[in-house]
Each structure stands twice: as structure tokens, then as C-alpha cells.
From TrEMBL, chains A, B:
Protein's pathway: Isoprenoid biosynthesis; isopentenyl diphosphate biosynthesis via mevalonate pathway; isopentenyl diphosphate from (R)-mevalonate: step 3/3
Name of the gene encoding the protein in the UniProt record: MVD1
Protein name per UniProt: Diphosphomevalonate decarboxylase
Record-annotated Diphosphomevalonate decarboxylase-like N-terminal domain positions: 10-182
PANTHER family: DIPHOSPHOMEVALONATE DECARBOXYLASE
Length: 408, 408
């Protein structure tokens, strides 16, 4: 008997123009367009195996080995139902000989290769991997943009993880959301030396969830409407141009301004929402000073910070500057030995925790104090990456019995 | 020989609707109107003695016993020149027998009774006291609003310290600034049970000066223009009504929203400006939770936080709630013994540092962690107060020789 099963992985993406606010909470239609960089799946990814089998009792899902309930009418159920609908309409209705997979229950196993404690949102890569694995299972002849419409209904920013490179989520105008989808602004190959350094920041405060936080902003922030109508549209145009021109200085200026403005409207909310803490602020001070020195030398901005709904910094920079920035961060935020995975061999086997830290000429060291070990819990170095990948049988997360394999 | 000398004191004011941005930096004309509560001079004040004497060589100023240079064309020189001009036009030109004090050099001694380390801006009370003492010295037949026009040119927010109670600074529209002045919305006696608790927050970061910071915001924040044009005008109307109605719930809601929005536009600046730190954020979390409980009980908001260009919190509340709020703050921010000056006898001689802290019924204690001693360096309890006071000879800061007395 045939086994209908497919495995896919999908990347994390970190926005440069931030998504904050829904105009339709059920369909997850945003109040403004957004734009992100897709990060490399070699380092951070969600992997999902989906199997359709008429013998299964009902749809089931396991996340990192633990079963999660698929709630009726919930986001997960919506995504699965939409994928089954596409299977029926695009495949089975047109080719009557194809198996009626849309009528079979599915078992889905998903795994994130980064710990929850890292504070990286896994919903974007997770829903993108889910949709990608089902698209592969169902042999859907549809574009990533079409799939992005479905992933969007799982988690808004998931739609941007359907592409590699530099990705825009166009807000769209239709009430049914069919034009609220992701498009690729430029592939990874267009500007492959965009690297990212994720600074995982310790936080002793439980943050406001982005889902509830963004709606409070929509309801109470007087500034959000101005941002939506008068700021973001031009920034989308400007940052797309910066990417196409490989103009890092402009890319950095817009990215930082938009991170600041997202946190500004969060603060303009009642009651105010804070995601950044004193460590986040200190990292900003370092990057501002690093850029000040670089601009003074006529080199333009060399780094761009951006913060999502949490205290972690993501620093975008060109490959050639990463080592210098890692050393700068480590100088102010001492790391535990062996904590940095030097995947690009920047330190050639030397422990970054023992790095003396290069002195950037002209850098005013007083812009931040030196923090205690653990203030920045870890550093992850990655780069712009590709879109979802179809994986082979050796990567499957479901055993022959259709249940999750025990992870070694 | 006659001695021409006068001494005045003037209060600190803390804005509920924030002043942030100038449309004319020389005349100090603001981009929006603002509104403040004048605090009681019994607790916080600047005192200034001015003497005019033809034997003096030139205008001189001593601040807290140290001589400060009066720079040509600087703000201090402008204020003194404007006061001399008023003396000439309003007194000497009209009454030729009056002595020509406007032609005499002045010696000015000023003293703030609160330490610079408290992080309270002394420029507002300082310029208000300067202008008040000169107005008294010169026997000027002019209103506090007229004097406020001159104090404004020393330090913008100083104009609001020319009145007691609840004071609006109307931005005005004239290019010469003659209609950019302070008016009293309501006197202290209208709502005397508005109290203020200042939480002096420790900071290890040198902040951005408000003078340079606000102009960076004017130049770079896309959100500021919306605030100026579309948010502040209505808030000025609404908070004035709340004050006239003694509607604390509305007063608190607007005050907190405007503090948040001021910090939001600071954050929307390039590079971003942060004045609040993790301790400031924790105090906000406590007040938000305190109000949540109170609103749930049908009592409305009982407290309002507001933050100026620094990490200190000022909490406005009605007299009846101060003790509860002090205990709440002390619970999360332990105080050193003997550090709290219990000027209103809330604790009847007991040391607030030893207070167990009352438990507010229904309060979720997990909204903030308990900080170490020193995170909040001190608490100052005061209340709405009166405007500048003319003081008697026993308060003079200048000796018979016309030079500052040595302060005992």
C-alpha cells in the first residue's frame, strides 16, 4: 500500500519593516505591509513531516515530540483545511485518477532546531514548514505566494517564510485576504553577504504576547494610524530599492528606524508595551556608536539592529564586519566559554569567550557599561538564506507506524 | 543709600502634557502646548535674590554658591535684558521719578533646595525664581503671564512655574513669541488633594539632554508631527476639563498616555532616545496593575505615572492613596532606613524602610520583581502648590556687600 508522506523544512525570517496590527484578526490581514530577511535554514529551521492515511482516525499534530491539540476553528485547523481544499480543487477535481488525499486524515510532526528559550518566534518557520510539507504531500501546482496566503492564516509573519532572500508581505486590500500575500523582493543570491547576528537577551519579565499586544495598539495608539498610512508605504518602497541597489547604508537606516517606530507605537499603547530592556538599549547604544564612527570615516552605516516582540537584538551587517561586531558585543556582554557556535569559522577554533575584543578606532567606549556574564545569553551567527526545502526520506519525523519517531 | 534688593522663591512643575520640540530655538517657542502641575515650594523650590546697584561692575550670577558665567546672547543674559527692558518701559518711562534701576548692573544669587543628584530639572524653578525676584526688585506692574514670556526664554518649561495649581503653556502662533505664555487652568485651591510621589531612580547611563534631544526628534521623528497636530490639541482640552471637573480617572488616563507618547516619539528619533530604564518600566507595571485592580472595583484609576527626560517617576494620586502607594513602591524597591522624609506624617514617625507593605487586595504581585536596595534611591512626597512667593529680608541670599552669603 502506498505511503503518502512528505517532509519539508522552512526558515525563520526577521522583519526590517515590522508587522504590528491586524485589520482582520480571523483572516490575519495586517494593517500595513512588511518586509523581512529570510535566515539560513542551515542554522535555524522548522522541519515538518506530513502523512495522509485513510486509516488515521483524525488529524493530529506533534510539536517537538509533544502532541498539540488541533482546535476546531483554530489557526492550525484552518491551515490544514485550506491545504486540503487546494488539494481537492487544484488536483483531485482536475485529475480524477489522483488519490483523494484531501479526504484522508493527516498526521503531522514538526520540530524546531532552536530552543524555545532562545526567544525566537517559531510560529513563522513552523507554519511555513507545515504548509510546505502539505503542499509537497498533495503535489500542489501552486506558487509560494499562494501557499503564503494559507501560512498567513496560521501566523501572519509565516507567509514571509515561504521565500528565501528578501521578502515583502503585501498587505492587500481585498476583504477575503486573497491578495494579502508574500512576494520575493530579491533572492538570497542577489545579496548573499548579508549576515545576521542574533543576541539572545535574558529577560526576567514575561512579555505581552504579540497577538494581544498588537490589537491593543490598534485600539489605543493614536500614533499607529499615522505610521500605517503615512510612514510604512514609503519605507516599503525605499527599503526595496536599497535591497535591489545593495545599498547597506540605506537598508540599515530604514531597518533601525522601523524597529524604533514599532517599539514607539507599542509604548504609545494603553497600557504601554515594552519589549526592549536595559540590555537591548545598551546594544542599540553600541551599534549607534559603531555606525557613528563608520559614518564619520565616510563608510556609511555598517550595522543595523532590529528588535521583535522581545528583548533579543538581531544585527544585520555585511559578512566582512561580523567578526568585529561579535568582538564588540563580547567586550560589553561577556560570554560563557564554548557558548558561541562559530559556524562560519570567524575565530578559527578560538573561543570567542576568550576574545580580547578588537578596539574599533575612534569608538567611544563609554556609551555602554560592561554587563555581567549572562546578560546576553548567547550569540547566533547566520545569514540570508533560501526558502522552504523539500527533504528526503532520511529526514522524516514520522515512523513507519505514522507516529513521531523518538528523537535520539 | 537705598538698597534695591528682592528675594523670591519659585516652584518645580511636572508636566502632564509634555513639551517636546521647539519651532523656534532662540525664542524657545514650542511645537505644541503643554500642561503641568505646580509642586509645593514647601518641599522643592528655587530661591533667588537679585540686587541692582550702580556700583556693581557688571551683571553676575551665583548658583548654589558657585559663580556661573552670564554668556552674551545666552539665555540668562536674554532674561535679564528683557526684565530690564520691562523695568524701563513699564516703570521708568512712565514715572520719571523712579530710580533708573534698569541701568544698574545686578547681582543674582540662586539656590535650589533639592540636590542635582535627585535628577529633577532645576531650570524651570530656577528661571521662574530669577524672573520673579527681578519683577519684585523692579516693581513691575505686569501679570505672571507676561513674566512667563520672559521665563520661557530662559527655559521653556520655566514659564509654567510662574503660576501655582494647574498651568497650561499655550504654544501661541506669533513669530515674536508674545502669545506663547503660561495661563492658570485652576489654582491649587481648586483641587488641593492632588499629591505627588517622586521616585528618584538610579541610572548608570548619561542621558541625552532635553535641549538637543527634542530638536533631534523634531528633525527625524515621523510620528512627532502627528502628535503635534492631531493628538495634543484635544488632550489639552480634555485634561483641562478633567481638572476643572476634578475627574481623577480622566486626568490619570491622559497624563499616562501623554507620558507614554512623549517617550514614544523620543524612541522614534534617530538615533533613538531612551529616558526610562528597567526600573522605570517596573514602576509603570506596578501602577498599571494598581489601577487595573481599582478599575475592576469600579473606583477608576487611582494613580498616574509620568516621566520627564530621565528615569525618575512622578506619581500623581489623591491624598488618600499616597500611603498605600508608598508601601507598594517600598515593597518592590526597598529603601534605606531614614531615607523617606514623611512630611505629611503618613507613617507617624515609623520608618518607611521597615514598612511591611500593605497588600492591595487582588493585586497580582508577579507584575514586577523585587529590586535591590538603591534601584529607587529615594522617595519625595509633595503636593500641588502655589506660585512664586515674595520672601522677606531674612531669606536673602546676598550679604550686605552684595555678594552671596556663605551658606551655613
Amino acid at each position: 500500500m502506498a505511503v503518502y508522506q512528505a517532509t519539508a523544512s522552512a526558515p525563520v525570517n526577521i522583519a526590517c519593516i515590522k508587522y504590528w496590527g491586524k485589520r482582520d484578526t480571523k483572516l490575519i490581514l495586517p494593517t500595513n505591509s512588511s518586509l523581512s530577511v529570510t535566515l539560513d535554514q542551515d542554522h535555524l529551521r522548522s522541519t515538518t513531516t506530513s502523512r495522509a492515511d485513510p486509516s488515521f482516525k483524525h488529524d493530529r499534530l506533534w510539536l517537538n515530540g509533544e502532541e498539540e491539540e488541533i482546535k476546531d476553528g483554530g489557526r492550525m485547523a484552518t491551515c490544514i483545511a485550506e491545504m486540503k481544499r487546494l488539494r481537492k480543487e487544484e488536483v483531485e477535481d482536475k485529475q480524477p485518477n489522483e488519490p483523494k488525499l484531501s479526504t484522508y486524515p493527516v498526521h503531522i510532526a514538526s520540530f524546531n532546531n532552536f530552543p524555545t528559550a532562545a526567544g525566537l518566534a517559531s510560529s513563522a518557520s513552523g507554519f511555513a514548514a507545515l504548509v510546505s510539507s502539505l503542499a509537497q504531500l498533495y503535489q500542489l501546482p501552486v506558487s509560494p505566494s499562494t501557499l503564503s496566503v494559507i501560512a498567513r492564516q496560521g501566523s501572519g509573519s509565516a507567509c514571509r517564510s515561504l521565500f528565501g532572500g528578501f521578502v515583502a508581505w503585501e498587505q492587500g486590500t481585498k476583504p477575503d485576504g486573497s491578495d494579502s500575500l508574500a512576494v520575493q523582493v530579491a533572492p538570497q543570491s542577489h545579496w548573499p553577504d548579508i549576515h545576521a547576528l542574533i543576541c539572545v537577551v535574558s529577560d526576567d519579565k514575561k512579555g505581552t504576547s504579540s497577538t494581544s499586544g498588537m490589537q491593543r495598539t490598534v485600539e489605543t495608539s493614536p500614533l499607529l494610524q499615522h505610521r500605517i498610512k503615512h510612514v510604512v508605504p514609503q519605507r516599503m518602497v525605499d527599503i526595496s530599492k536599497a535591497i535591489l541597489d545593495r545599498d547597506f547604508d540605506a537598508f540599515a537606516a530604514i531597518t533601525m528606524a522601523d524597529s524604533n517606530q514599532f517599539h514607539a507605537v507599542a509604548l504609545d499603547t494603553e497600557p504601554p508595551i515594552f519589549y526592549m530592556n536595559d540590555v537591548s538599549r545598551a546594544i542599540i547604544a553600541l551599534i549607534v556608536e559603531y555606525n557613528r564612527v563608520s559614518v564619520a570615516k565616510g563608510l556609511g552605516r555598517k550595522a543595523a539592529y532590529t528588535y521583535d516582540a522581545g528583548p533579543n537584538a538581531v544585527i544585520y551587517t555585511k559578512k566582512e564586519n561580523v567578526k568585529e561586531i561579535v568582538e564588540l558585543i563580547v567586550k560589553y556582554f561577556p560570554q560563557k566559554e564554548g557558548s558561541f557556535k562559530d559556524v562560519f569559522g570567524l575565530f578559527g577554533g578560538a573561543d570567542v569567550a576568550k576574545s580580547e575584543g578588537s578596539v574599533v578606532e575612534g569608538f567611544n567606549e563609554a556609551v555602554a557599561k560592561k554587563f555581567e556574564v549572562g546578560a546576553v545569553k548567547g550569540l547566533i551567527h547566520t545569514k540570508v538564506g533560501d526558502g522552504p526545502r523539500a527533504l528526503g526520506k532520511e529526514e522524516t519525523l514520522l515512523g513507519d507506524d505514522g507516529f513521531p519517531k523518538t528523537l535520539a
